[in-house]
Amino acid sequence: MRRGTAPPYRPTMRIPAVESRSPRDWAVDVVAFLLAVGFTALAYVDGVERRLDPAVLAVDAILGGLGCLGVWLRRRLPVGFAAPVIAFSVFSSAASGVALLALFTVAVHRRFAVVGLVTAGFAAASVGSVVVRPDVPLPTWPLAALGVVCVAAVLATGMFVRARRQLAGSLREQARRADLERVAQARSQERKRIAREMHDVLAHRMSLVSLHAGALELRPDAPAAEIARAAGVIRDSAHQALEDLREVIGVLRAEVDCDDDAPERPQPTLADLPALAEESRRAGTRVRLVSRVADPASVPPAIGRGAYRIVQEGLTNARKYAPGAEVSVSVHGGRGDGVTVEIRNPWPSDTEETAIPGAGSGIIGLAERAELAGGRLEHGHTSAGDFRLWAWLPWQP
């Protein structure tokens, strides 16, 4: 072989895997083997009573015994078991009983065309047995009819077992696919939920960065203390945004546990609203927060988190579309009445522009969040000229 050339391809033979028998399969095979041995013994005793030639008896017993041993191979090689046993039945009366078992096995494990061919071979062997062995009497019409009924019953039973197994296998496959689809849907919903969480967080952080960066751009001659404060806010917001982004990328790369309803990170509650309002005030937004929830810590985590995200998105939108305007935030509710969140800010004039871009999906995500929690969300202009974001989230008693 020359250097640098690949070795010639040599096909290899693959040996089929041996299916392990269940305890039920072992019990069925043992019963089938005992029935075959019993029929072979009865055929041998009948031959002895009819004073058949010893050589004929020996051949009958040997072929019948081989057929009995083949019972243990019938699951792996149904046709390979049936073909020699049917051939044995031409010369051995003892093997004719095992041939019926072979017909049943083929009917269970093979398609209808193969079953038909094996049945035709069995019929030919029955005729050949009468021709080859003169000691076998010609069957009368009642016996022939009984034989046909027995063969039909064996075939019908085998095909019924086959159809039942196929139905059971189809149901198991459908259940498996349904389970895979359920897992896929759960993972997709989990990732969408994480995406909503990170949209709310990153939009809030990036709006702070953009706002302060724009202020530094417009006022390069601002006092050093004000520039340092703005730079600190930019640094902290960018750092927190990077941490949030790193967290969500790690979650999306890993396998998400779909049975866990709690978000990975962060997990704000209703008690964190004052800190959120103070953060927006440090960023230059005038925020007036009124909270009439007696015990914010007792609010269910999912409801508190949803209310927090709604307020966070409302403040982010106010910074984007109404910079410098005062934002009014009202949160009230109680156990059994639900939690109501209302955010108002003056609607900007047509000539007022903002440099902060928006994807327009924040309100849509909040509406989906509210619907998933069993609540509702409304937004739009008011008669007073304000923009109003209102949401209600259920709080079970």
Automatic annotation (TrEMBL):
The keyword ATP-binding applies. This is histidine kinase. The keyword Transmembrane applies. It comes from the Bacteria. Residues 190-255 form the Signal transduction histidine kinase subgroup 3 dimerisation and phosphoacceptor domain. InterPro entries: HATPase_C_sf, Sensor_HK_TwoCompSys, Sig_transdc_His_kin_sub3_dim/P. Its EC number is 2.7.13.3. GO terms for molecular function: kinase activity. The chain crosses the membrane at residues 26-45, 52-73, 79-105, 112-132, 138-161. It holds the Pfam family HisKA_3. PANTHER family: NITRATE/NITRITE SENSOR PROTEIN NARX-RELATED, NITRATE_NITRITE SENSOR PROTEIN NARQ. Keywords: ATP-binding, Kinase, Membrane, Nucleotide-binding, Phosphoprotein, Transferase, Transmembrane, Transmembrane helix, Two-component regulatory system. CDD domains: HATPase_UhpB-NarQ-NarX-like. It catalyses: ATP + protein L-histidine = ADP + protein N-phospho-L-histidine.
